[in-house]
Amino acid sequence: MLLLFSMLLAWSDVPLAAFDGTAGTARQWITVNDPVMGGGSDSSFSVVREERIGRWAGEVKIVRSLGAPGFCTARTAGDALFRNVTGSTHLGLSLKGGSGLPAADFSLQVGVKGVTTMQTLYQAQLGGEYCCADDCRVPWSAFRPSFRGRPIKGPPLADHLGALSQLGLGTAGTAGRFSLDISSLYATRDASRPRGCARDEPVRAPPGAEAAEEASPHMNAGLAYHVANALPGHELSPRGFARTSEHFTLYSPPIRSRYAGVVWRVLPPVPLPVEVVQRYNGSAMAVTGFEVDVVRRPAGGDVSVPNYQSYNHHYTAHLLGAGMRLPASAARQSFHGLPAGYVQPVLSPAPAGTPADKATHTVTSHFQLRDMLAEDCDSLGDEYCASARVAEARGGKVRLIMAGGHCHSPACLSLQLRDRDTGELLCEVTPRRGKSDAAWDEAGYLWLPPCQWGSAEEGLRPPPVLGLDANLTAIKVANATEYHFGVMGIWQMRGAYGDGDGDVGPRAA
Ligand SMILES: *[C@@H]1O[C@H](CO)[C@@H](O)[C@H](O)[C@H]1NC(C)=O
Ligand SMILES: *[C@@H]1O[C@H](CO)[C@@H](O)[C@H](O)[C@H]1NC(C)=O
Ligand SMILES: *[C@@H]1O[C@H](CO)[C@@H](O)[C@H](O)[C@H]1NC(C)=O
Ligand SMILES: *[C@@H]1O[C@H](CO)[C@@H](O)[C@H](O)[C@H]1NC(C)=O
């Protein structure tokens, strides 16, 4: 088994449709143009063997009755299934040379056996955010079921990557001649595009939940990341990385374990991709997030390993710059360090006579925000550094950015973080219970959506500003009927120094 970090390169791309003789990728292509709707546009598709391309060329014309440009499409014929590309995150399109029309005038179209029909398809518009020169990569999540180009309701395409039966391209809305030389359409897990393009593009601000979803590609495709405290209306907005960010993937060395064995060791270091090292040689790299999966790698792609086969209680990844060495203390333990006197648990077992299905067991502890910080530490050398000294220098205030409540399966029912001075409930985490045998939904395991604060545009509440002397209370409720040996209830938080009034500082932990 391997730990897979998305910081995306190693899932090898799967060619779906190509013109170079790759096994299973040759298809017959057909065109459908607007004369079916009374227009006059025309296009044709031909395979140019010596150049290993499919050439789709034609002209979009104004449909007289509408006074607007019509459409041309080119699609694979037949409904034979393409390879199962479950686990991939993007559909890639590789072209040769320009087209005569802007990328944004083309769409990618996908048919799914048993889901789409002659009239319906999944469609995603191309554009600068997905395309760089001759290379486009469109997240499966950007495809919307559509009926003659208009969105309709339907299941996410990412749930049907085993049953793709049709691939195609369309252009509509701009009149003019075009000619597109297509090398291949392929499934990939690599959202990164050739260097240089990403930063040249304008960043589109996501206007709402729909856009947040569009702007949120992530590695663990099909998984909905939610936060526990989103603004009303945004509770189910998926969370991910900005589309303008770039990704790379790292695989850990294989992790071998015995049945019921505990693996508690540091794996050998893994070098970052050479191009990443070179690009950031001598400069800072802003890592804005990372995702992890534990996978097996049978031929054809990664398969997530369910928790009941390899339960991964903790992993810790250190991303080290050229001048750093892994600190010795990081080699054996994960850090649960609590300042002396931090926890004063108040246990509240269920009163005698409580019916079993109502019986709970509550642990409460009181502490101050200052207890969550070290008196002083070196934020450059110590990744866990959150310094009370620096916070004092910024007016003794901290803004909360994230609070993750941590508790254990199966007994945990809820975790609350309260501000005792104001009575405010800062965060409440209700575990999501797994219901099946599927990886990421394992019965008997819990997922703990965190609280995150940010901007209204992101569907998030503004960060609470707390003084170092804020009095906080953590309340953890467990099911008293479920077997538990001990009780786990901690809050792991991230914040920023200062009250945010013109203040941008290093993070506090
Ligand atoms: C595609 O592969 C996934 C995972 O490997 C599997 O769960 C799914 O059943 C497959 N789908 C089809 C239609 O074969
Ligand atoms: C980083 O840049 C320096 C100076 O140009 C060069 O000597 C060194 O080999 C580079 N290191 C890597 C890992 O590319
Ligand atoms: C505790 O778990 C049991 C199953 O083990 C369930 O029947 C009961 O309803 C749960 N109690 C609460 C308070 O959720
Ligand atoms: C927290 O409690 C202490 C002791 O009761 C008190 O002195 C302090 O003012 C409280 N903090 C706030 C922000 O009210």
Furnish the topology, listing elements before pairings:
Layout lengths: L1 E5 L7 E5 L10 E5 L8 E7 L4 E8 L1 E2 L4 E2 L1 E6 L13 E7 L9 E7 L7 E6 L5 E2 L2 E5 L4 E4 L2 E2 L12 E9 L3 E13 L8 H4 L8 H6 L34 E3 L22 H6 L11 E6 L6 E2 L41 E3 L11 E9 L19 H6 L3 E11 L4 E8 L5 E5 L2 E2 L12 E2 L3 E2 L12 E3 L3 E9 L9 E9 L9 E2 L1
Antiparallel strand pairs: 1-18, 1-19, 2-17, 3-8, 4-5, 5-17, 6-7, 8-16, 9-13, 9-17, 10-11, 10-16, 11-14, 12-13, 14-15, 19-20, 21-22, 22-30, 23-28, 23-29, 23-31, 24-25, 24-30, 26-27, 31-32
Output the keywords:
elongated, Jelly Rolls, disordered C terminus, 509 residues, single chain, mainly beta, 7-stranded antiparallel sheet, signal, binds 2-acetamido-2-deoxy-beta-D-glucopyranose, 32 strands, 34% strand
Architecture overview:
It holds the Pfam family CIA30. This protein has 509 residues and is mainly beta. Helix content is 4%, strand content 34%. The protein is built from 4 helices and 32 strands. Strands 2, 4, 5, 9, 12, 13 and 17 form a 7-stranded antiparallel β-sheet that branches. A hairpin with a 2-residue loop joins strand 14 and strand 15. Mean pLDDT is 80; it is low at 5-10, 194-216, 331-335 and 503-509. The structure holds 2-acetamido-2-deoxy-beta-D-glucopyranose (NAG) (4 copies). One 2-acetamido-2-deoxy-beta-D-glucopyranose (NAG) binds next to loops.
The DSSP helix count reads 4
Q: Rough shape?
A: elongated
Overall radius of gyration: 26 Å
List low-pLDDT spans. 5-10, 194-216, 331-335, 503-509
Q: Which cofactors or ions or other ligands sit in this model?
A: 2-acetamido-2-deoxy-beta-D-glucopyranose
Largest sheet: 7 strands, antiparallel
CATH-wise, what's the superfamily of one domain? Galactose-binding lectin
Q: Report the top-level CATH class of one domain.
A: Mainly Beta
- Label the structural class: mainly beta
CATH architecture of one domain: Sandwich
The separation of the N and C termini measures 31 Å
Q: Please estimate the helix content.
A: under 10%
Kindly state the number of beta strands.
Answer: 32
Estimate the mean pLDDT confidence. Answer: 80
In terms of DSSP E residues, the strand content is 25-35%
CATH topology of one domain: Jelly Rolls
